[in-house]
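Hello again,

I reread your note about wanting to compare the complex against the isolated chains. To keep things tidy I'm splitting this into two emails, and this first one only covers the full assembly. Below are the input lines as submitted, including protein chains and any nucleic acid or small-molecule components. They are followed by the predicted structure of everything together. The single-chain runs will come separately.
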Amino acid sequence: METKTKDFKYVYDKPEALVDKVTHYCPGCGHGIVHKLLAEVIDELGVREKAIIVAPVGCSVLIYDYMNFDGCEASHGRAPAVATGLKRVNPDSIVVAYQGDGDLLAIGTGEAIHAANRGENITTIFINNAIYGMTGGQMAPTTMEKQITATTPYGRDPMDVGFPIRGCELLNTLERPVFIERCSIYDFKNTLKTKKAIKKGIKNQIEGRGYSFIEVLSTCPTNWGMKPQEAANWVKDTMVPYYPLGNFRDN
Amino acid sequence: MHEEIIVAGFGGQGVIMAGKLLCVAAMNENKYVSHIPSYGAEMRGGTANCSVVISDKEISSPTVPKPSIAIVMNAPSLAKFEPRVKPGGLLIYNSSLIDQKPKRTDITTVGIKANDISEAEGSLRAANMAAIGKLQALKPEIASLDSVIKALDVVISARNRKHNDTNIKVLKKANS
Amino acid sequence: MNEKILMKGNEALGEAAIIAGCRFYFGYPITPQNEVPAYMSRRLPQEGGTFLQAESELAAINMVYGASAAGARVMTSSSSPGISLKQEGLSYIAGAELPCVVVNIMRGGPGLGNIAGSQGDYFQSTRGGGNGDYRQLVLTPATVQEMADLTVLAFDLADEYRIAVLILGDGYLGQISEALVLPKPTGKVFEKPWALTGAKGRKPNKVASLRLVPETSLEELNLVLDEKYKKISAKECRSESYLTEDADYLLVAYGTSSRICREAVNELREEGIKAGLFRLITAWPFPAEALRIASAKAKKILTVEMSLGQMIEDVKLSVKDPERVDFYGRSGGMLPETDEIKRRIKAYGN
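Full-complex prediction:
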């Protein structure tokens, strides 16, 4: 950081890996936070010029417009396959597949499991906010029991549509992933832990260690019908008991 | 010369390979060749066959709805292909495994004890060679015996090339 | 004389892809094209390339998308039902303008159908089976030699136009073995400044089809694509006219059915009947101008397909006096018969 004047210096700056642009995300949405954490990690590890972000279909479909490095669209659920193709051609690239809960655990479950099972040397960031944001608040595979959504107006009934799927636990049955951790951004302390996990995931990739999976319990105040702070509390009080935070694997 | 050939038998009798052997031998004599195997689920335990065209001229259609030559290695293949042989055509049948005689009188029918000849040379698996040896004797214009023998090194996988001495013996025996 | 080898169609296109510099293959097994992934799984590691058996056709085409976005020459292959599954990916590939080669060794349909050769995917290939306004180049080989030669061409066309090139074969072409002289690499080099290779010393590259604001950008993209498609239509039509100059009766076909037609033409000519064959080598762009010329004098035009009538629509749109156009097709894995073609042509004479 360059010294601005004799008396003042930068102690905080926008990451170079982040474009200076107003996002389209709602107030209190977790995507912006995670985007910034990723950009900070990319800067800190000095890999901006090698990084490729693979965008999902969902609210973060435009993530490549916010990242100041190469970006690639993927069709809904296929980010792990696109990331596989990118990484296999240029193994020196740093490839991050950024996926939502519908993308990763509904329409793209097959791709997610098989990329993890092959131990592709990529990093997956999985945003779990228990709802489909972009399409207007429908049930996600991770929607909580009894949670009201646009397509579960009487609350999610596990006897009808199954229980919410736990992504980390599912992938933890596979041999090849090297890092699996569930984090959250509901408060500052956990946000820092999330950054640490993302950093570990990218580091693993730089070192050629294999597949890393970071699940982030995130917020969707708009579709949950809550204020930002209520949404953060709901993550802590409702989601965390079902989706326990912590590291599942760190090989 | 233009021959449209069917080679048919049980899966495992080497009929696909016999067809390829003819193709490589004729190709190396600068003839035009094509080979289409029956494939997929058809191959699992049932009958197998291939359609082979060998010609002095460029081959238009590689399909063989009415063969000028049929080599049938088992009874189901005889039943299937005897009626399809072109009038005036040639039918070679494996009389080691086929008891009944072909019924057609408007074609040439030749029985060969392919399994017996193969066994006599110490192998149970070279019956296809006996049929090809016989065909070469009857239709030498397709390819010379020398070309057929040379083609063995191309068509037979490296793993099975050790059996080529036996294959050559059976080819020659049936050819004489 | 160049050295001839006996090779299966499916393997010939695999080797030709390697000759063309393809080092990445992603695919999923399906009959009758299984020799392609088997061949690539054996050969690509020998060439320092990557073969990956994907978990599905969806994954395979999206791996192709990723590899192409990274700047590589990449191929996938499948047969009809598997190609249906790839349609979403092909639409995204068209929108993101990514070059790739996709092989369809067609089998009988609809649904699971059967595993015999068919030409039932002409509409899907030439009209665009995925969503949106797009086209893809479609090459239709008829021999093992062409399976190889057109594969080499396909990679150059894909890179030149940043487009998916489909090699539309059928089960018979995949399974047939014929003499082959291996093609030579063309040596053409295509710069790919758009590829995702890391934003080092340049602005970030984005590979995407999403254009959310309709008034400004999606139509713009569609118009850019349309310009490209017009250029391809003007420059890349390919066909073969066989004995068409004096033909009273013109057969129109492609792939395996064109070979059966050629035999019928030869036999009809021996009987003194002036028959000719117009054979597609590109199905899109459709060689309409060449067909207009080849069909100028024909009293009747018989379209022959291994389907119940798909290409015939393009034939009718292309020729003068389309009431001359007649149809003979077999479907479900059955082949048109030489004798039936001859019978129909002779019947026109009466």
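For quick reference: Chain A is about 35% helix and 15% strand.

B.
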